[in-house]
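Notes, Module 5: Reading structure tokens.

Key idea: the token line is not a picture. It is a compressed description, and you learn to read it the same way you learned to read a sequence, by spotting repeated patterns. We will look at two proteins. The first is printed below with its tokens.
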Amino acid sequence: MATISTPRPAPVPPSTDRSSTVRPDEVAGDLVGAIAACCTPLAAAPLSAEAAEQLAGVLKAIAVPARLRLLSMIYARDGGEACVCELTEPLGLTQPTVSHHLKVLVDAGLISRDKRGVWAYYRPVPGALATLGALFRPQSVAAGTPPEHCAQR
């Protein structure tokens, strides 16, 4: 994976006020990047071609705003399921368009589909979002303590 580097301000002598040259977002970005690179499962070992292909498919599925909203609406729904007929109006999309987006989410393994008569009902796949989130969650958060190699940094 290519690393994108941003230009850094020139070093500031110790006697100079740094508040005008060091931006908080740069410091936070460096910190988040160091933690993520050090402690997430994605950084523990290179992905196989097959695993990368599968993960890319899931990430593509949720990269579309309408699909992300659908996923959120289904997961937040009382009763744990939603009919396609209940999802079109809140999104302002036609039923065929919503059905297409739902099919992509089903194919990605994030929701399941249950056909009842002429209606299709969608519900969350248990653990799907937790599994996806775990790929990006630092291991120190999951385990309660940072891995040994993170403590050495």
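Here is the second protein, with the sequence above and the tokens below, as before.
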Amino acid sequence: MTETENDHRSEVIAGLIPSAPRRMFGTGVLYGLGFLLFYLVVTQPPQGLHLVFLLIVIGAASVYGGYKMWQVTGRMIELTEEELRLSDGTVIFRMDDVEKVDRSFFAFKPSNGFLVTLKTSHSVSWAPGLWWRFGKRVGVGGLTSGAEGKLMADTLAAMIAMRDGLVDLDGIR
């Protein structure tokens, strides 16, 4: 493969990035929940040490989730001909591993997003507010725009249909 062919294959076809207000609202909700639980433990501790411990753990997890969400939502999800990746180079999945794309109403998918079923199982991974991967399923979306998510899902579905020979788009180019 020549260098220009490689550049063309890694060219970004579609992208998803949360807007600043969505990022602030999402992280604010998680930080708010965490600090509210800490406040509750300090001002009105529940009876029983196990409940105090539970509130502290859930509060810490919420604050950590808010921190993690702020970090990852600053990145863009990029769709190329070869893979779906983050702008920092983290590969979410490769295109040759995609079995189907599901945007249906009853799909277990993130808000404003879509679900991708892969052919092989992968390790569990999660970027709060952007995407998650559990086994053969990848959910993309969350804090992202619904229109951008729909565009990426439709583009991905068209690429898969073309790859599988269900649609011939070569005559259009």
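Summary for the second protein:
- The beta strands are 14-16, 77-79, 83-86, 91-94, 98-102, 114-127, 131-140.
- Confidence is low (pLDDT under 50) at residues 1-8.
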